[in-house]
Amino acid sequence: MLEARDVSVQFGGHQALSRVSIAAPAGQITGLIGPNGAGKTTLFNAISGLVTPTSGTITIDGRDVTGTSLHKRARCGLARTFQQLELFTMLTVRENIRVAADIRSRWARDHTDVGALTEAVIDRVGLREVADERTTSIPTGQGRLVELGRALACKPRVLLLDEPASGQDDRETERFGRLLVEIADEGTAVLLVEHDMSLVMDVCHCVHVLDLGQIIAVGTPSEIQANTVVLDAYLGTDARSAS
Amino acid sequence: MDKFLIFTVVGLTLSAVYAIVASGLVLTYATTGIFNFAHGAIGMFVAFSYWQFRFAWGMPTPVALVLALGVLAPAIGLLIDRVIMRGLRGTSEATRLVVSISLLVGLIAVANIVWEPGNSRPFRTFFEGKRIDVFVTTITYHQGITILVAVIVAAGLRWLLHGTRIGVSMRANVDDGTLTLLNGARPNRIAGLSWAVGGFLAGVGGVLIAPTLSLEAGSLSLLIINAYAAAIFGRLRSIPLTFVGAIVIGLTEGYLAGYLPGDNRYLAAFRPAAAVIILFVALLLVPNPRLRDRTHIREYFPAPTHSGMAMMAGAVVVVAVVMVTTLDTVSLISYGPVFSLGIVALSLVPLVGFAGQISLAQLSFGAVGAIAVAHHGVGGSPLGLVLAVVFAALVGIVVALPVMRLSGIYLALATAAFAVALDRWMFNLPDFDIGPVHISIFEVGSVSVDPVRLFGRDFDTPGSLMMLSAVAFALVALLVAALRWSRFGRQLVAMRDSEAACATFGLNLLWPRIGVFAFSAGIAGLGGALYAMQLGSVAPARFGLLNGLPIFIVVVVGGAGLVGSGLFAGSMLFGVLPFTSGWGPVFAKINSMFSGLAGIGLGRHPSGAVPVFSRAVSPLRNDPVVLAAMAVSMAAIYALRIAGLYSNWPFAVLLAAAGALAYLAAVRRSRATTAEEDSGADNEHGERAPVELEWVGITEPWTPAQLARIEQALDLDSIKAEFVKADLDA
Q1: Residues 6+ apart with CB under 8 A from A86
Q2: What is the ipTM score, two decimals?
Q3: Would you call A50 and B500 a contact, using CB atoms and an 8 Å cutoff?
Q4: pLDDT digits (tens, 9 = 90+) for B666-676
């Protein structure tokens, strides 16, 4: 499980995150929602090691990883996707996933068939038809699946997903939701940043709401939907009248 | 005390020049994001022009100054911005770097054409001979003016950046370009002004320093490497810190000039390299840059195919056999580097093309190989070649370790600094001992290299050495291709796109970076060793930074990620250019500008020139019949040449004719087949191939089946389709 405690991040004079605490237990999908600029991606960057927090601690399965480098955190079982796709454009979809599987087999000293793992991941995320395409020629929605596939190829214990459903249509999102539930059921801790509220409310066990760098609410999806502070800050009054 | 003051003044004068030049560099980099490697070359060019106005044409000093600094220098800056740099927005850092390096090489070439090197050009200082006494020391007018100008430049830049409207928007542009744009700043005006001011400052520096040195295009352009060190002190952003850096470097050089024992051969060579070493140290203090995340890279290099690589390796060997059997000794010697330095070019492919790293020191690794083979290949021992690879790779690791966390321009600067440090200092060292290890370099001059003895055979003629180099080239090309096909190769290509993503999979980026650096340095070492054997006797001058830059440029122009670009660079730089230069001095002059011009043109074709050629010859490559016919006829032409029926000129013409005919035939045949395919649009099932969706209802009847296709393509809800269908039925 992943735990971030009192994490603060400062960019120059701008306090991007102030004393944010969040936990993502194993086997559950934890939602993280909030308006644009609330600090969701910054929190992901702080957890994965791309940004150094000014204070606070981050633990993965009880191991303190604050201040360690990206690759060391990955070796503790942390994987993530990026909101701004970070695909390898010179490689095909299959090779993108293969690179991740190769890297993992190296550090995990797990030399079971990397090729078979790659193919299994391709089927699991549903990219069989475009497996030999270059990543520049597939739509964004599928690009996000490539990112998820690469993360899964690392066999993570904690999975951070940054807006994985944006660019996907309704049918794809629905499939995607089922896949997430499956992944969590296998014991992975999933932390999900997403703007698609129906997806978040459907699959998450617990939702955290971030606004202006601070957690303003934590609760089950139904509690969050009824929370007036959240409605004012993010979901809006339409949701209030709808519920 | 007198001595101390004298050399303080000497140092401060140097500081002043470095500060003036470096602040111009920082200004353009900070406001436009382009690190101008040609900044020093602009200063060089303006200094030459000033000499022309003032001393060759005898204009009065003020007129010459106004022409050179007031008109020419800003005009060069503006021209570079308008014509070259504006097209580079949105290209990768490597491309921008190559363009500015090409500009450096091009400006030197132009200067060497206009002002023939070797002629003496007396360049008097301002108010020559006049000096004033200050306290206990004397300062020449020239020194005084130089220091004064630096103070004025500092004050002027402060006024420009803090006191004027456009200066404020320039500073804003540094902080956040997009935001500045949204607030109504005009980026073209900002860029134009900063290039003009940058050009002016480079010119001022050039005119001030040229009289105290000899007027020589290459060394004057590279002198600016010293100014780069000052700019790094300011992290390429802060002008005040750049001035501090300039003072540190200038004073260091001044005191070294005064206090370094001149009779010590080890230390005497150190002084000119001091600034470069300071640059290297300053780079080590640059804080860790953020990991590269996906930049918009326009370049795309497909992995080589097995058949393509087999063809290329075969062609290299065949061409070498033909050359060796038909060319005379003189030609074999002059075209020798095609394959040996071609290997050095090839060494850039994995580093620059696959991994996206930059090294300007590849030819220096070649020099390490040359030194190794000179000392360990005595009597033809193959150990020399092995050690050439090993030593070059080791030196590569030593260079890479401290700077590997840097990338882009910092890595380019670090490798350039390394190349210059070797050139100015290490290569001029006499033998020395480190503990039990005796290290011998160029023995202060040149070393002789014995031809290697392999498989019981001496490779001691130009022909056999060319054959050896060609076979080595083919093997290294296959090795590089195999690297690209391997797991490690995929990883390198992935890192080129997103280091951040690779790290999140658990990859420690340090090892692949160092690995590819060592691999590529080792290959360069092999190339350098073979080149040294061809020369028979080598001196460090063959391996200077400026000799290596064209190789770097042409490989990138060819398409850095393509194995073929190594061949392209080798044959272009050491085959085609020397060949056409033989036609006359005009051709030689045009050719000297080739790599500069080619690199400047890169902005338009970031994926390089090789794919363009490759696409052009694809009809021929994909037509086995014509290809076989061409091979047979060329073999016949070659057989007749060997039989002595004709000399090389008719031979070359016949070969070219056979190639051209085969090409035309292949193009005709491929056109015929495509036309056939077009007319037979019906497929094997007798159905017509489906038309593009946007033509449905225009060229095709509007049927429910077509509707279903559209629905599927657009992924509409079925309800919507029902609605339209009902509409259709009605």
Answers
A1: A147, B293, B294, B497, B498, B500, B501
A2: 0.90
A3: yes
A4: 888 888 877 66
